[in-house]
Amino acid sequence: MPTTWSRSPEEFHKIYLANTDAFYRIGSSGLAPELDEFMTKCALSLWSRAGKIGERHVQMANQIYSRGRPQPKWLLWNLTSSICEEDVFMPPVFFWNLAESDAKHGTTTSRTFIRMLTNILLYLSAVDDEVNYGEAEYITECTDRLTAICDTTGVRKSKEGLNPLDFVTSGEPSFVEKHKDQVQTSGGGTVAKASEEKSVEKPNFDELMEQLDSLVGLEIVKKEVKNLMNLVKVRKLRQENDLPVPPMSFHMVFLGNPGTGKTTVARLISGLYAAIGVLSKGQLVEVDRSGLVAGYVGQTALKTQEVIQSALGGVLFIDEAYSLSSGGENDFGREAIETLLKAMEDHRDDLVVIVAGYTGPMQGFITSNPGLESRFNRYFYFPDYNGEQLMEIFRMQCRKNSYTLTPEAEETALKLFTELYEERNENFGNGRDVRNCFEDMVVRQANRVAAMENPSKEDLISVLPEDLEDPDEEGTEEDEKGSE
């Protein structure tokens, strides 16, 4: 019997916007990128339980985006590949934060989110005009896990959502079960699987090293990363030849100010570790204190374990890690540290942890716990970018986005970044400041070009000195001079 939940892709998108808009009114529209990504992951896992995958699934996947967000561009071959690769359901970090906020303020936003998720997933399961038992079971599993977070966090009860099992119309086997002996190729065809193990394509070591070399500055960091990779490669060779290898920790401490490339280097190291067989996947999972620490006793360990599970096979990158130990003996950050240390021991063969932050506080963090000192003994220092290096990052941004600096604009920009470096204070953002300058430049250039009657292509890409100068600041300086 066909389901009553079937909708056209266009109708579904309206439903998706209506549900998410209602959620953003009581939550926050700032969650849109994370929410769309989470909903897409749920759709992929859901459809792995579907009876078949076709163009309608592609059309629906391309409608999972919030108002003002870019539309996805799925094709059938990469959708089916992603469906076959999708793992278990993982509650998103933002949901933990919602539940904790609800418990604190007596609201029920997180429970509203669960009802919204149930509705959207039912519409997505009905894309083939059927809701099978596997799909309904998956939706129930998702809502049960999220509800458990609400219950244990202390969110007050609210209206119950729909029961997906009430809408089952088919008992057809899932897509993955029917195709478990085949995998999708990049060209859209299928080939027989050599074994039941899911193959993971390894990153290309040489390409990653080229990306490392192309980074602006960071010469000492690059040298240390290369030394580390050589050490690991020789260690692997010795193991393969039954030779003894000294104990080695793969975990690292990144020291330096914001915007100095720490996350970028961490992502490259994660791929390099996977390329030479230290890690099985090579993904980077980036969190800070809010992604690990909950607001209630016993919840931090669960929250931290969820993040660790998502990082297995790759690198867990903890920014401003010192905030975990800065709250005193009764702070829940201590619980996160203990959970992390246990996971580093339990998963020492397939998890690398990189902690990062300002030099002084990070040194205090490492010495705050004997377990941290014993596991983190490899330190990378990321210096501030000087004026010329900031300028080179700016040039790269311009080239990447097809903007051309005139000679006069080059001179103005170099002076700007030289002064920015020489006059830096504790708020100096390094590469982040460059990005802000670039974005401001794009706005000023657009305002200037928009005032032209018939701008040429050259006008559209040319950057003039006035595009790099803040007219409000110039006016302030002139006013000050006039009042002297």
Supply database-style keywords:
single chain; 484 residues; alpha/beta; Rossmann fold; Helicase, Ruva Protein, domain 3; 3 domains; five-stranded parallel beta sheet; two-stranded antiparallel ribbon; 21 helices; 9 strands; 55% helix; globular
Question: What would a concise description of this structure say?
Answer:
Helices cover 55% and strands 7% of the residues. With 484 residues, the chain is α/β, with parallel strands linked by helices. The strands form 3 sheets. It has a 5-stranded parallel sheet. A two-stranded antiparallel sheet has the order 1-2.
Number of strands: 9
Helix content: 40-55%
Structural class: alpha/beta
Q: Helix tally?
A: 21
Shape: globular
Biggest sheet architecture? 5 strands, parallel
Question: Stretches where pLDDT falls below 50 for ≥5 residues?
Answer: 178-199
